[in-house]
Amino acid sequence: MKLNIAVLPGDGIGPEVTQQSIKVLKAIAVEFDHTIVFKQADVGAIAIDKSGNPLPKDTLNLCKESDAILFGAIGDPKYDNDPSAKVRPEQGLLELRKSLGLFANIRPVKAYQNLLEESPLKTNIIEGTDICIYRELTGGIYFGEKKLSEDGDTASDLCTYTRNEIERVTHLAFKAAQSRKNKVTLVDKANVLESSRLWRKVVTEIAKQYPEVELDFLFVDNAAMQLILNPKQFDVILTENMFGDIISDEASVIGGSIGLLASASIGENYALFEPIHGSYPQAKGKGIANPIASILSAGMLLEHFGLQEEANRITEAAEKSLELDITTPDLNSDNTRISTDNVGDFIEDFILNPIDTNFNYTNIHLGQSTII
Ligand code: IPM
Ligand code: MN
Asked: Rounded to an integer, what distance in angstroms lies between the CA atom of residue 368 and that of residue 114?
């Protein structure tokens, strides 16, 4: 297969983690005889610095011409601390999602067996957790009308949803549940919000088309609690844009690090793959950022094109790195020697040569060889 990938590394740790994914995808291309062509473009704060625009036209055009987009991260503290800034890096990502119609954001959350101790939650609570969050991505309060009064003392953000916006992501969530544990939990605030009541109505109607899938409802405040009290009750979580943003960060605690959570943003014509973590500017250039979320996002990219075996190879390699403790300091505070690059190198090597890599890596690649 030939794939043209637009690479948008963005800000902070975005470039260094994305670099690892490129390395890993190149290894997959060699191993499975595919051609993957990467073309890079600016987005976010770096694009504002260069052109004043967080999503330059050339970047959007490149995305539209490509088969898929590999996204790093965006955000810069100089904008976070300036509420009056008219142009913000995040607008680049939001505009990209909207312009490409990426309405469904899929975020898998898993408790890895050998990382159970890394989570601040108790092992018996998280062991066996396997959730997939379907977050609506192009509607709701993120994209509703925004107002600030003339005197600057009153502000509002409108949360709007249409039936069609709810339907399309709901179908994807139910289809996903069919190949998982046949359960969908709709997370909303239907006791207060009109938009949530529309979600309940539409989702209940659609559920009739999937009789084997059990549909459950939770208010978002309760869901936030249930997620860390009893995460195993969940299979597919379906929710609107902002609730999905919040609960997916919360859910990352189950896996032990936000540096592990991958995501796919899917629309009718385009697909973008990105780690859920932000730009983590404090870590930029230090080699401590965890590249696994980005690498697993690259795996989701392959899966999107039906390359299941290739995607599995990435997952296996990433899980092997976790098993052998070849991990960045977010997962391994005693071990500060293993860098972002080292993790990427291991995963690349494992894809190219699983048997040897498994056997040799800890000794040779970390400079502890007893052979020389
Ligand atoms: C995410 C991020 C974005 C969001 C920001 C960077 C706009 O937090 O992808 O979860 O809120 O959607
Ligand atoms: Mn977020």
From this structure: 23
C-alpha to C-alpha distance for 207 and 203, rounded to whole angstroms: 6
Name residues whose C-beta falls within 8 Å of residue 265's C-beta, 6 or more positions apart in sequence.
97, 102, 104, 105, 106, 137, 271, 272, 273, 274
- Atom 4 of ligand 1: nearest residue by CA position: 245
Query: Considering its fold, how many domains does the chain have in total?
Result: 2
Q: Is residue 262 part of a domain?
A: no
Mean pLDDT along residues 83-105: 95
Whether pTM > 0.90 for this model: the answer is: yes
Span 39-72, pLDDT tens digits: 999 999 999 999 999 999 999 999 999 999 999 9
Q: How far is the CA of 260 from the centre of ligand 1 (A)?
A: 16
Which of 55, 80, 94 maximizes ligand 1 atoms within 8 Å of its Cβ, making it the mutation to test the pocket?
94
Q: Give the integer Cα–Cα distance in Å for 67 and 302.
A: 11
Q: Do 251 and 117 belong together in one domain?
A: yes
Host domain of residue 346: 1-102+267-372
Residue 221 known to be catalytic: yes
Half-sphere exposure of 260 (CA within 13 A, CB side): 26
